[in-house]
């Protein structure tokens, strides 16, 4: 075992717990020893917390119980004292109504767990969608040296010699099932084959997007974002991350030293360049907010107009995360964007982003496109504005039918999700392929929790007629694995009194993505008349976390953080021991 280095242990934060010769410190030391720990194990060494979101109800993190041991090995190798600390797990597939309701709760837990304990550095073990922003937000607010270890994508799905992608192929084959084209046996076969291993969705969903964003912002080791969860490389990554966490403690390299407006912009450009999830926008605004950096949708729009999409990965492209990894992964993609990125930003690896990606080469130009042959020259995801979304809304244009990006049609409005579910597949439904499906009361307050309902299903009678995409509008989010012409995050949401609450079936709606416009063809007088005659708002939960959430959550364009958590935090542990 490495002996404590020449660094001064009195500089360590944990020394304030374990160092002094007083009664409280005696208590801290004696109770640590109650676990069988000896002086040599922890004294004068950085205490490195392994914040583990393992849970048997989060299948994406099912390898984390073992992987934590490999992080531990790395911490020991570098002379640290590892302590594993479980924190809330947000497993996308089993939580209702949505993990997004709980992102801020995990962020609060991470912040407070770090702040109140003798922790010198932390390894943040997350991966499944909201765990990534939640852990980063918490670590930023605690401002204790932290390094992120992504869960890694699962293996590619295989069924009848076809490659299956998480989420995306569920939507695709469910449409075929509703249309009557897929038998029970095949549907069961897909169920058995689509999730072949531990790990996160292996499409460019929110998990893969946020892992890439985290790496580009400098908060994980180089290449970490794409390593498949069950590859031997992922075991090694865990150990390397543990080793590096000890250095971070000695160097006292904190999130506030790494994350700046420039590194956030690197994250944003990366999410665009990989054709990433629309959810990244909401999360990045919230992450920036914790740093006291105001990031707006207009800022996102600016970058969207200049950032090419080079990652040809589903649902916006053709390949999956395993292919991306084999093609060179994120460093190879970023190396093709060095003229756009802020390459002098620092990273947890101790080098700049530019140094980190220098020399990274793409092995397959089909998966990682070249600059002169991009998936899209710019605008993979776009901000739209207009009288239906005064504070903006977004559309992932590369995952939409290009023919629908300019469209005008009559609205077909559903007041809420249960109403939509009850009516959508009714053969009598008055709908055509030109209709604009609208779902409201599906935003941060209305649902509540801002669920992934924004890829409204295509009505059965249209599916049977061969329709596979149409224009859909909502104040909801959609899964990063979803696709289609879905306008999302309409702000303000209907439950907060946004204009979406006043749309009626039959109103004419126009979207014009090339001109970044959404228009509701109803006069201002008529809008005023409807506003006078309609009772707006929603019933909010009266108790518990739901109450706290409803009172303090911000709208989509502000990142949906709690208003009282925005801005820089003093970051210190309570002063009285
Ligand atoms: Fe966990 Fe997709 S369900 S990453
Ligand atoms: Mg998802």
Walkthrough of the structure:
With 577 residues, this protein is α/β, with parallel strands linked by helices. It is built from 21 helices and 14 strands. An eight-stranded mixed sheet has the order 7-8-12-11-10-9-13-14. Strands 2-1-3-4 form a four-stranded parallel sheet, with helices on both faces. A two-stranded antiparallel sheet has the order 5-6. Strand 10, helix 19 and strand 11 form a beta-alpha-beta unit. Helix 6 (131-142) packs parallel to helix 13 (279-290). It starts with 14 loop residues before the first helix and ends in a 25-residue tail after the last helix. Bound molecules: FE2/S2 (inorganic) cluster and magnesium ion. Residues 92, 129, 201, 205-206, 479-481 line the site of magnesium ion.
Topology readout:
Blueprint: H1 15-18, H2 23-33, H3 39-42, E1 47-52, H4 64-77, E2 81-86, H5 103-116, E3 121-126, H6 131-142, E4 146-150, E5 157-159, E6 162-164, H7 168-178, H8 184-193, H9 206-216, H10 232-251, H11 255-258, H12 261-273, H13 279-290, H14 297-304, H15 321-326, H16 329-334, H17 353-357, E7 382-386, E8 389-395, E9 406-414, H18 417-423, E10 436-439, H19 460-464, E11 472-474, E12 486-488, E13 508-512, E14 517-520, H20 524-533, H21 544-552
Parallel strand pairs: 1-2, 1-3, 3-4, 9-10, 10-11, 11-12
Antiparallel strand pairs: 5-6, 7-8, 8-12, 9-13, 13-14
Helix pairs in contact: 4-10, 5-6, 6-13, 9-12, 12-13
Bound molecules: FE2/S2 (inorganic) cluster and magnesium ion (MG).
Enzyme class: lyase
EC number: 4.2.1.25
Domain Dihydroxy-acid/6-phosphogluconate dehydratase N-terminal: 45-355
